[in-house]
Design goal:
Protein name: SDR family oxidoreductase
Helix content: 40-55%
CATH class: Alpha Beta
InterPro entries: NAD(P)-bd_dom_sf, SDR_fam
CATH architecture: 3-Layer(aba) Sandwich
Pfam families: adh_short_C2
Distance between the termini: 23 Å
Shape: globular
Keywords: Oxidoreductase
Radius of gyration: 18 Å
Family: Belongs to the short-chain dehydrogenases/reductases (SDR) family.
Number of strands: 7
Number of domains: 1
Number of helices: 8
Strand content: 5-15%
CATH topology: Rossmann fold
Structural class: alpha/beta
Order of helices and strands: EHEHEHEHEHEHHHE
Amino acid sequence: MGRVAYDFSGEAVLVTGASRGIGRAVARAFALAGAEVAVLSSGEGIVTAAREIAEETGRPVRALVCDITDSAAVRDAFATLGRIDVLVNNAGLEEITPLLEDGDEVEARFRRITDINTHGTFLVTRHAVPRMRAGGRIILTASIWSRVAVAEFAAYVGSKHANLGFTRVAAKELGPRGIRVNAVCPGWVRTEAAMRSLAEMSRRTGRSEGDLLAEITAAQVLPGLLEPDDLAAPYLFLASEGARDMTGQALMLDRGEVMA
């Protein structure tokens, strides 16, 4: 996380999709910085994650089990919360959705991905904003695939493009309320979802995962695969006073793979 120290003591932070990967790393970083952290996910694994983050940081972490595609469930979950100073919209689903795949399953996957990544993000933000005051911050996890495209990932790429558009719309709409909205666009990160996609790409192309990963990292200016903890500091920055004049922006965190 580098040498910059952040202090979020007394601030309430909610991180969605925090049972693993980037969301968990971000939640842990905010807890270490003194924030009152709540984490949300649709599976019971979020309870374990909250307990482990609390043990690692020495800070209380609250777990909320909620399907963000269900408006009533989101409303009920948020009814248990008080003020929200920082919302991290990190929940998302990444799976392959080839246009030419036979059968109905791919259509079901497409709907589920877009429902979580776009509709869910809208619902969470919609229910969070009434609990935010001037000075509130919202950070979305988008992707470098919100700026470029890759074959056979229509739902994920399309939803991440939508996330970037949503970031800009929300920044304009919420700016008069004093709420800033920005996005982080990670490149390839060693997460369960990314490695699952890599394995599927290997299966479909007949190429080894090692060869595909070497090709991916070769497209970066800086070598090596990102780890979830590498992503935490930019979220803290966007939530800090250092970014008080930034809104509607997208930070590319991809070791130079896509240059804006």
